[in-house]
Fold this protein.
Amino acid sequence: MSKHVILDPAAHDFNLFNSPFYLIAHADFQYHEDVEAVLVKNGVSKNIYRLLTVLREREEASISWLAQQALIKRNTVSRLVERMAQMHLVTTTLLHEDNRVTVVALTPAGRALLDRLTPVVSRQTARAMAGLGQEQLQQFVLTLRQIIDNLNKLGLE
């Protein structure tokens, strides 16, 4: 790769294959393709696993918060949560102060499934990050957070 990388898609010498967003999407696709095969063998989709991992970060969460954190549309999360409840992975209750809000919590079965799947996902993460030092990874995370912050505050038009 040359020292001079054109990142502006409008530039005449723009190279898609060096574009950060193309590379992020490509890495994400490859990472999740292998993980999803393992998840399906265990009876869960990538989205259900994602919701389980988000729920691990919080005792209870509203459907709206889950949708925002998991990057899944709210109506899709509602359907997934119903399915997860049928699988006994989560419980749902109405918020006492506002019965329009559904609160979702992991069950012991949901936590056990996460405990079983997390080592597999951990191996995929290690595979993806092989050869990168801790400092590189920390800088990568900081860079991604900066990009996310930029996109959150700057509208396209």
Summary: Residues 16-131 form a domain with the Arc Repressor Mutant, subunit A fold (CATH 1.10.10.10). Residues 20-41 form the longest helix (22 residues). DSSP finds six helices and three strands in the chain. The beta strands are 60-62, 90-94, 102-106.
